[in-house]
UniProtKB/TrEMBL annotation:
<keyword id="KW-0597">Phosphoprotein</keyword>
<dbReference type="Pfam" id="PF01583">
    <property type="entry name" value="APS_kinase"/>
</dbReference>
<feature type="domain" description="APS kinase">
    <location>
        <begin position="24"/>
        <end position="174"/>
    </location>
</feature>
<keyword id="KW-0547">Nucleotide-binding</keyword>
<comment type="similarity">
    <text>Belongs to the APS kinase family.</text>
</comment>
<keyword id="KW-0067">ATP-binding</keyword>
<comment type="pathway">
    <text>Sulfur metabolism; hydrogen sulfide biosynthesis; sulfite from sulfate: step 2/3.</text>
</comment>
<feature type="binding site">
    <location>
        <begin position="32"/>
        <end position="39"/>
    </location>
    <ligand>
        <name>ATP</name>
    </ligand>
</feature>
<keyword id="KW-0808">Transferase</keyword>
<dbReference type="GO" id="GO:0000103">
    <property type="term" value="P:sulfate assimilation"/>
</dbReference>
<dbReference type="InterPro" id="IPR002891">
    <property type="entry name" value="APS"/>
</dbReference>
<keyword id="KW-0418">Kinase</keyword>
<comment type="function">
    <text>Catalyzes the synthesis of activated sulfate.</text>
</comment>
<dbReference type="InterPro" id="IPR059117">
    <property type="entry name" value="APS_kinase_dom"/>
</dbReference>
<dbReference type="GO" id="GO:0005524">
    <property type="term" value="F:ATP binding"/>
</dbReference>
<dbReference type="GO" id="GO:0004020">
    <property type="term" value="F:adenylylsulfate kinase activity"/>
</dbReference>
<dbReference type="InterPro" id="IPR027417">
    <property type="entry name" value="P-loop_NTPase"/>
</dbReference>
Amino acid sequence: MNHNIIIHPHKVSRKKREKIKNQRGCVLWFTGLSGSGKSTIANEVENQLNKLGFHTYLLDGDNIRHGLNKDLGFSEKDRSENIRRIAELSKLFVDAGIITLTAFISPFIKDRQKAKEIIGERDFIEIFIDTPFAECVKRDPKGLYKKAMRGEIKNFTGINSPYEKPVNPTIHIKTLEENIEESVKKIINYLKINNYI
Ligand SMILES: Nc1ncnc2c1ncn2[C@@H]1O[C@H](COP(=O)(O)OS(=O)(=O)O)[C@@H](OP(=O)(O)O)[C@H]1O
Ligand SMILES: Nc1ncnc2c1ncn2[C@@H]1O[C@H](COP(=O)(O)OP(=O)(O)O)[C@@H](O)[C@H]1O
């Protein structure tokens, strides 16, 4: 830590930013296996919120692993650093008053716990996209499971790298029991009931 860095107080507060947006900033933290449906559901939630006139931003592999985190791979250490940076970034988005959606596997309980501590419990909504491993292998939207099973990808989640399920997620989505529309509705309703929107 650099003790010579002094934080400058801002005139415009989070509250003021949220007030003109007519919403409360928060992070919708999606977690689940590759192919479970994180991106699909997060995209549709963002689309619905946008149509309703709310201010959102979706963080996913496209804008993070190709940019800010392009130096990171898939070892346990790199995944932890990936999640830590995403949590710090999300915290800034929340301070800007934005409804932030993150779609990362985030396979380790300790890393999600750390993300919750960085962002703050009140602003962290954990959404478990619960799709059985066999179904993800069947869907295989990017052909990665096939590759991993041929031994062409090391440390692949669910095959030779673990996925630790959330014990008590804020929202639990079982994609074999509900369709995309129902899942999206459930998440939007949560935001309404809890006065985020
Ligand atoms: N080894 C390995 N394990 C898992 N996933 C892999 C791997 N290599 C590449 N990919 C692709 O990268 C996406 C996962 O990146 P994440 O940043 O979400 O992973 S993590 O949260 O740091 O664990 C993941 O995307 P999603 O399918 O959207 O989850 C994969 O497409
Ligand atoms: N109920 C459902 N919820 C979410 N995705 C579903 C569902 N049923 C089927 N799918 C399909 O599963 C795939 C999930 O892929 P994707 O969203 O990229 O997953 P992830 O981001 O977790 O890797 C998509 O092809 C999607 O159409």
